[in-house]
Structures are given as C-alpha cells and as structure tokens.
Amino acid sequence: MKSLIMIIIAGALINNVVLNQFLGICSFLGVSKQMKASASLGAAVIFVITIASAVASLLYDYVLKPLGMDFMKTIIFILVIAALVQIVEMFLKKKSPSVYKALGIYLPLITTNCAVLGVALTNVQEGYNFAECVASGFGTAVGYTVAIVLLAGIRSRINEKDLPAPLRGAPIVMIAAALMSIAFMGFGGLQL
Amino acid sequence: MKKYVERLWNGLIKENPVLVLMLGMCPALAVSTQAANGIGMGLSTLAVLVLSNLVISILRKVIPDQVRLPAYIVIVASLVTVTELLIKAYLPDLYKNLGIYIPLIVVNCIILGRAEAYANKHTPLLSVMDGIGMGLGFTVALTLAGALRELLGTGKVFGAQILPEGFGMTIFIQPPGAFLIFALIIAIMNAIGIKTRQRKLVESGCDGNCSLCATAANCETKQPAEKAGKAENAEKKEAGAAEEGGAAK
C-alpha cells in the first residue's frame, strides 16, 4: 500500500508528466487558455489514463508476453487507447450525458495525447504489476491536471498584461511553463 | 522539378514544423538536451515521416475516408516499430538516450498532420519530398535547440569543448531549460518576421486542430477578422469547445 502511494506522489509531483517528461505538451499549451476547459480536460485525462494503464497492463501481462509478441506493444497500445477513448465516449454519452457534455471535444482528442501512450509504455518498461500500473497511471494523470490547471491560472493573468510583441502567444506561455518546471524541480528533494 | 524543391524549402523554413507550426513539441522539448540526440531523433522521425507519407499517398485511393485515421495510425505504428527495432539493433547508444521517445513517434502530431494535410491528397513523389522537407525542418530545429542547450548547459557542442572548462548553466540541460530555449528561439523568430509569420500561420499552418496547436491563442487574439475567414475549421472546433465549456457551467 505504501509503495502505491509513493508511485502516485512520484507520478504526480516528482516526475511530473508535463513539466519534467514533456509528454502531452501539445494539449498543455493548446488548451490551457481557460481554467474551466483545462479542468475538464484534466478530468477526462485522469479517467482515460487510469483505465488505459489498467487495460494495457492486463493485455501486456496476459496476452503479449505469453505469446512473445513484446515488439507489438506500441501498435497494440495505441489501438487499445483509440478504442478505449471511443468506448468511454459512447458510454458517457449514454449513461452520463452531463459529464459527456462537460468534457465535450476534449474527450476524443485524448487519443493523440502522448501522455497516455507514454504512461502505458513506461509502466511496461518499469515492470510494474497491475496495481502499480493503475497507481502510476492515476498519479501521472493527476500531475497532468495539476500542471494544466496551474498554467491556465497563470495564463489568465498574463493575458491582461502588456507584453513585448515578440513574446506574445507561445513564447510567454513557455517561459511560464519553464518557471513552473523550476518550481516542480523542488519536489525532487522529497524523500520517499 | 521546381515544385519538388519548393516542398523542401517549405518544410525547412516556411512551415518549419516545430518553430512555425508548433507541432511535435513533446519530443522536441524532451530530447534536445544534446545536439547529437536532436539529430538522432530528427532523423528517426524523418525516416518514419517519409515512409508513412509514401505509403499513405500510395494507398490514398484504397483507404475509405471514414476509417482513414485508424488506418493511418496502424501504418505509422508499424513503421515506428520497425524503426525502433532497427535503432535498438544498430545504434544502441542512441536507443538508450532517446528511450521512450522513439515509440512515441507514433503520436507525434507532425506525422499524422502531414498524412492528413498533404499525403492523402498528393502523388507519392511529392509526398515523399514533403516528408523529407518536414523531417529536415524537424531535425534542424531539434539540432539547433540541442546545440544551444548543450552549449549553455555544459559548454560543449557535439561533445567538443567550446567554452572554457567548468562553464555550464546546468538549468539549460534540465527540463526548464527546454522551455526557455524554445521560448527564446520562437520569440526571436517572432521579432524577425512577426507580421509575415502571423499571416502564414493562419493561411497554411492551421490544420484545423486547435487542441494540437499552441498558437491557437495567437490566431484568436491577433487576427480575429482573418481567422474568421480563413481558418474555418479551427474556428468551428474552437467554437465547439467554447460552447461545450459554456454548457458545462
């Protein structure tokens, strides 16, 4: 149990998926314009990554490994993720229209979020068991959400400022991300 | 002949995938710790991009429109797996340095983006040239950023000592340095050609997928009139997203 909590904390803060490993940068920079949208995307990512890690872990341990088809993992995982996002979308649409509406367009776009595939592949590389995979997926996704919501908050302040023209848009957002990344480096000192 | 050369120029400078279109930022930020890693990642992506453009262009009349994205993903994933195994076998050092970012070429926005925006509409030869141009543009951007980070972070470029021994601002080879260097490069490019760049972005850079586009902020705030006319796709998606966001309230 203790080790699972450590995996979650390590995934969320110490090895933050966005600020430290640079996965999911596209949506991190693209969607973080509004706080609300960022929070919705974060929720959807937590949902999808946790389930995707679980499914990928089961598939790898019980199908790919016994068959000796290790090298197929990239192809299989990306297909599983794409299918999973579809299923989650259909399920939510039917069972919980309010959540579906809140997530909106961000749900299908999670397929192209490299954090999902990244976590699944890292889990396999680290040799995590099922529970550890789920914990690592959940922790990573929480880290993503924290980062994107924080950046959205910073950006809402930046927008009100009169910036030098060349810095407007992407550059200032990346500078903000750099400062956040420096702050998150501080978590590296946590003794787990 | 001219249009083939034009494709190369387009990918390298005019629509440089990283610095102008802001695609493929994840690997660009992650592996640019050294110039050599930048070249390795750039060339691996180039190989996948050229082959995927070629295959998709050849099959463009065979693949049904409704299932084209899953089909592209399978094609790209297979090519990436082949590339990964080749790198693992012949360049084990590079494989160790790039690590998880090699399989993640599958979800690199540049590859699916070019398949969707170019290869499925053009002849195989033109698509290959487009792939080479875009791949070289990616390689150049990564190598440039890698060389800068390596120089500032360790005083070396390609492992050769350039600045005095003991020089090194470690922050530049750590994660924050990646954001800083790219912010700097893009800001300099902005300063040089801010007007032309904005226009080009709206005209050709936007693939209608705003969630993958880090400059979506720009096109909204800076070119409201032009954007409304020219990037209808992006507008639709944006509007959809905004509506959804609003509905959530």
Your description of this structure?
- The complex is a heterodimer of chains A (192) and B (249).
- Chain A has one domain.
- Chain A has 192 residues and is mainly alpha-helical.
- In chain A, helix 3 (35-67) packs across helix 7 and helix 7 packs antiparallel against helix 8 (130-158).
- Helices cover 76% and strands 0% of the residues of chain A.
- Chain A starts with a helix and ends in a 7-residue tail after the last helix.
- With 249 residues, chain B is mainly α.
- Chain B has 2 domains: 2-145, no CATH class; 192-248, no CATH class.
- Chain B has a two-stranded antiparallel ribbon.
- In chain B, strand 1 and strand 2 form a beta hairpin.
- The longest helix of chain B is centred in the middle third of the chain and has 31 residues, at 124-154.
- Chain B starts with a helix and ends with a helix.
- The model of chain B is unreliable at 202-249 (pLDDT under 50).
- Chains A and B meet through helix 2, helix 3, helix 4, helix 5 and helix 7 of A and helix 2, helix 4, helix 8, helix 9 and helix 11 of B.
Quick synopsis:
In chain A, 76% of the residues lie in helices and 0% in strands.
Number of domains of chain A: 1
What percentage of residues of chain A falls in helices of 4 or more residues? over 70%
Structural category of chain A is mainly alpha
Provide the helix percentage of chain B: over 70%
- Overall, the morphology of chain A is globular
**Overall pLDDT confidence of chain B:** 78
Q: Walk across the major sheet of chain B and give the strand order.
A: 1-2
Please state roughly what percent of the residues of chain B sit in beta strands, choosing from under 5%, 5-15%, 15-25%, 25-35%, 35-45% or over 45%: under 5%
Q: Biggest interface, and residues per chain? A: A-B, 57 and 62 residues
Unreliable segments of 5+ consecutive residues of chain B = 202-249
CA-based gyration radius of chain B: 19 Å
Overall mean pLDDT score of chain A?
A: 86
Instruction: Compute the number of structural domains of chain B.
Output: 2
- Series of H and E elements of chain B: HHHHHHHEEHHHH
Low-confidence regions of chain A: none
Main sheet overview of chain B: 2 strands, antiparallel
Total count of strands of chain A: 0
Number of helices of chain B: 11
Number of β-strand runs of chain B: 2
End-to-end C-alpha gap of chain B: 55 Å
Helix segment count of chain A?
A: 9
